Each structure stands twice: as C-alpha cells, then as structure tokens.
Amino acid sequence: MERSSARADVWVWAVRLSKTRSQATAACKAGHVRVNGDRAKPSTPVRVGDRVEVTLVHPHGPAQVRIAEVRQLLVKRVGAAVAAEAYIDHSPPPPPREERPAAIGVRDRGAGRPTKRERRQLDRLRGRGSR
After folding, report:
1. Which of 8, 26, 58, 87 has the maximal Cβ count within 10 Å?
2. How would you classify the pairing of strands 64-70 and 87-89?
3. Is the dihedral of CA 83, 79, 56, 92 positive or negative?
4. How big, in percent rounded to 5, are the helix, strand and coil portions of the chain?
C-alpha cells in the first residue's frame, strides 16, 4: 500500500538532511523546518509535491538553508543515492569560502624551534620589542 504522507521529522531524517532522527525532531521543534512556508511540528504531514525548507545551523559557520521539493515519501533511512532521488534540490549555492590571511608568527610544520634571531624578529613583529 502506497503512503499518502509521512511525518516531517522522519522524512527530513530519511532523506539525509539531518544526521539523526532526534536532530530532525529538534530542528522541527526549534522552527528550523518549514513545509510549504509554514513552521512544521515534528508530526506535520509531508506529501509528494510539498516544499520543505530546512535551516542547518553550523556551530562554526553561517547557517545553510536547504530547500527540497518532495518527489518520494520515505519513512526509513536509505542510501545516499536513493535519498537524493527522493527530492528535487532547490537550495541556493553555498557562499564561497573566504580565504584567511596567513597567520603572523606561525611557523611551518617541521621547521623546528625558532633561532634566537628569529625569536627577536617575531617579538618585534608582535610589538613586544626588546626588553
């Protein structure tokens, strides 16, 4: 028998938009999951053709919004190839990674300890000067 709907938290977990089912449930409770523009509770039904938006909050970077159009209802976690076919991804491309400037006073790995001369140069560079 073909299903007509699936729980929002289960579907988000099954198509691998979250790592665990409990993370998917927590995202729904926190308001990070929307179904057709409305905040979704974990038990909100998801049907084929619905638009699901999941805001993934990263601890060390900006939040990423994943927008998926439901093509297939899944209630069990499946392989990545099958999960990718269960939705159409309408997510915007991620922002380009910013290149960080070289850290001042950081030595190459394996370069050993700084010599006395190099240490004095580093101290001057850091504004410590000579004592």
Report:
1. 8
2. antiparallel
3. negative
4. 25, 20, 55
Structure tokens at 111: 């370069």
Q: Which two tokens stand for residue 52?
A: 């699901």
Q: How far, rounded to the nearest angstrom, does the alpha carbon of residue 52 sit from its chain's CA centroid?
A: 16
List, for residues 6-55, the tens digit of each pLDDT value.
999 999 999 999 999 999 999 999 999 999 999 999 999 999 999 999 99
Please give the torsion angle defined by the CA atoms of residues 91, 56, 95 and 104, in that order, rounded to the nearest 10 degrees: -170
- Closest C-alpha among 51, 61, 2, 52 to residue 27: 52
Dig out the tokens for 27 from the structure: 């995202």
Q: One-letter amino acid identity for 122?
A: L
